[in-house]
Specification:
Blueprint (H helix, E strand, L loop, with lengths): L11 E2 L17 E4 L1 H4 L4 E8 L10 E2 L4 E7 L1 E6 L2 E6 L3 E4 L8 E4 L6 E8 L4 E5 L4 E6 L9 E6 L11
Antiparallel strand pairs: 1-2, 2-3, 3-10, 4-11, 5-8, 5-10, 6-7, 6-9, 11-12, 12-13
């Protein structure tokens, strides 16, 4: 099917394994509903994301390859983008092109109702995701194991090993 109404989307809640440990988990609300696979998308990923008041959906991050776009459907919040912050409200469209820390982004629900937005991104390509606040990076390659979840490595730049290490 190539058409799906928002009222047909079932939200998934992140499991305890997908949330950060301890008190840090209280800052995040990870709920989303898949759209892309349900409408036959091949090169773009689509989902409905919902964030509770006062919560974040994910850590501050940037992508070196993937491009993302967010369309605010309901609620209000704040976009943290690079070194700046911008208010968000229903009807806003946000572009997050690939790049370095200047494109790092995070959406925060600063309102008193759920913040609901459509998230769209390129998909199916190898990406490097960086986390400027914590000095981490993540390499994701969905092509290495097509029948399995994407290959994923998370590390810190200050803990890199030499090319010849272990040879």
């Amino acid at each position: 099917m190539h058409i799906l109404n928002l009222d047909q989307i079932v939200l998934q809640q992140a499991s305890a394994d997908e949330l950060p440990p301890g008190r840090l988990a209280d800052q995040y609300d990870l709920r989303w509903g898949d759209i892309g696979s349900r409408i036959g998308a091949r090169r773009l990923g689509y989902n409905l994301t919902v964030i509770a008041p006062g919560k974040l959906a994910c850590p501050f991050h940037n992508h070196r390859v993937l491009e993302e776009m967010f369309f605010i459907l309901e609620g209000s919040g704040e976009l943290r983008l690079g070194d700046s912050r911008y208010p968000l409200r229903s009807g806003d469209i946000i572009a997050c092109p690939p790049g370095g820390p200047e494109t790092a982004h995070q959406i925060i629900n600063t309102g008193d109702v759920e913040l609901r937005f459509l998230a769209v991104s390129t998909r199916g390509v190898t990406d490097i995701c960086e986390y400027p606040d914590s000095g981490k990076y993540q390499v994701v390659d969905p092509t290495l194991q097509p029948e399995k979840p994407p290959y994923r490595v998370i590390g810190r730049y200050d803990a890199a090993v030499d090319y010849w290490d272990g040879e």
